[in-house]
Amino acid sequence: MVDNRRISLRIPILGLSYVGKTQIMNRFILNNFNPSYHETTRANFLTKELELENKIATIEIWDTIGLEHTHSLGRSFLRGTNAIILVYSCDSNESLESLKTIFETNKNYYPSEHIYIIFANKKDSNNRQVSYEKGLQFATNINAGFFEVSAMTGENIEEAFRSIINKCLIKLN
């Protein structure tokens, strides 16, 4: 018998190296933060089960390599994803500008009704280069959700993931 309450979601995290993609994933899945940097050299994923709206969701969060070298993931990697998280760092204007390029390069691989959310990580940084308004404007331009988050403190991480998961559940119903 098939359990209609169970669903699976696959959500990749895209962005440059050093923006905190791995830390965001670890904070959400493991409630853990490691301040030392270890470059992601291949795609990796972690899973978490959540109960939301009488459904049990198994969420696969895919951590990708930094995209400054390729900018393009290709159709095969993005096929079967339910949503995409685009991450930039509040302390790096370059990371936001590069994210715009990553989005433009890959948007033809995404279905037109795909769900996007922007995570502006390191909102706790004292060296802010990207204003809240600038990040929100980019999100608005591509019809994406927007959250400023801190993987270090955990601020807004749970809320941001629940937002994207709820959007996926609505779309699947």
Summarize the structure.
It contains 5 helices and 6 strands; from the N terminus they run βαββαβαβαβα.
- Report the mean per-residue pLDDT as an integer: 85
Ends apart, CA distance between termini: 20 Å
How many DSSP helices? 5
Q: Which structural class do you get from the secondary structure elements?
A: alpha/beta
Estimated share of beta-strand residues:
25-35%
Number of domain units: 1
Strand line-up in the sheet with most strands: 2-3-1-4-5-6
- In CATH, the architecture is 3-Layer(aba) Sandwich
N-to-C SSE string, H for helix and E for strand: EHEEHEHEHEH
Spatial extent as radius of gyration: 15 Å
Predict the CATH topology: Rossmann fold
Q: Quick one: overall form?
A: globular
The CATH homologous superfamily is named P-loop containing nucleotide triphosphate hydrolases
- Look at the structure and give the CATH class: Alpha Beta
Residue share in helix = 25-40%
DSSP E strands, number:
6
